[in-house]
Amino acid sequence: MTILLVDDRPENLIALQDILEQEGRTFITANSGYEALKIMLRNNEIGLIMLDVQMPEMDGFEVARLLKSNTKTKDVSIIFVTAISKEEQYVLKGFEEGAVDYLQKPLDINLTRAKVNVFEHLYNYQQQLKQSLLKVEAVKAQLERFVYTVSHDLKSPLSGIVLMVNTILYELETIERERLGEKLNIVEDASMHLAAMVDSILDYSKKSYDEQKKEEVDLNELILDIFRLLFPPTNIKLSIKGTLPTLYTRKLKLQQVFQNLISNAIKYNDKEIGLVEVACEVTDKHYVFSVKDNGAGMTEEDKWDIFSLFRKGNKTSERESSTGIGLNVMKIIVEEQGGKIWLDTVPGEGSTFYFEWEK
Questions:
Q1: 5, 171, 272, 292: which sits with the fewest CB atoms below 10 Å from its CB?
Q2: Helix (H) or strand (E) holding 66
Q3: Which segments of the chain are extended strands (E)?
């Protein structure tokens, strides 16, 4: 804990610091109320102020009143140190101005140490509570991202299943038996994929990051499954450049990134013959994946802002609504895996998203 000692007499500051000196404590001294206020506004680490009441120009009561009126310093504990008599009116004035305790000069060494020890324990508890609240906020933010990604990832295959079933129902009386069988097989595959996703999400939600299992993932197979189960229009074609690696990784996370990038490549393609190309390069520490399309591309402004929360690119398709959250979530997922994500784009010619995945 950092303690601010305030007294207009240097010998009093030396004596007080000598009494309170202890491992783990840092002391800052001020010779006036004005100096104390300047120090408090510059230093966020101070946990306790030992404040002399009788000082020229600005007494301790006024210093305390000003500190308590400032949102930055209002919660710092103050102990008044004074030679004023113990009359009730002076004690009450100290508490009214924001003091949490009172010490009478000449100081009782044992009592002074005991009171400061109590406030040090309280300060440590406050710091632990602040850290706990920060962790709670971090978990809350992670949960919100998780809920978004789950709903977003389940929406695409589910929408495709509904669309395919409606098509079958519409063509039921005229469709050929062989063609009907093909469509029903697609619906079955998509349903099984959806069920597997739900199982993975449930398993993921029950475990901390360190407990989440890693598994062998054949990227060629994963990309083909994702593309097929996004039910792309017939004019959109998939190309896998070379042979993609087989990774030992957290499948759900990698699937979320690819599904969002491929889904966007399909959704925002405005060409008569659309192309989605997936490739991979290998460095010492990372796999560097790319998802390229020949769609509308983006402006320079979109390029730099596209990963910001709630930022939307130029929409060229009405097949699905956009919230502007997806790419921000993808950026967080990639960074959690020790990589980064970036974009090359040319308006009218298309975009290429690159992301690193730690080996």
A1: 272
A2: helix 60-68
A3: 2-6, 26-30, 46-52, 77-82, 101-104, 215-218, 236-240, 246-249, 274-282, 286-293, 341-346, 350-358
Beta bridge partners of 306: none
- For residues 220 and 262, give the distance between their C-alpha atoms in angstroms, rounded to a whole number: 14
Identify the CATH number of the domain defined by range 2-107. 3.40.50.2300
Cα(229)–Cα(224) distance, integer angstroms: 8
Over range 303-309, report the average pLDDT.
69
Instruction: Tell me the CA distances in angstroms from 64 to 36, 76, 81, 123, one per residue in order.
Output: 10, 10, 12, 18
Report pLDDT digits (tens) over 76-94.
Answer: 889 988 876 555 555 556 5
Which contiguous run of DSSP H or E holds residue 180?
A: helix 177-205
Which stretch of 3-12, 95-104, 184-193, 303-312 has the lowest confidence by average pLDDT?
303-312
Nearest to 100 by CA among 76, 71, 126, 69: 76
Structure tokens at 20: 């309170």
Superfamily of domain 136-358: Histidine kinase-like ATPase, C-terminal domain (3.30.565.10)
User: Is pLDDT of 203 > 80?
Assistant: no
Average pLDDT value for the chain: 82
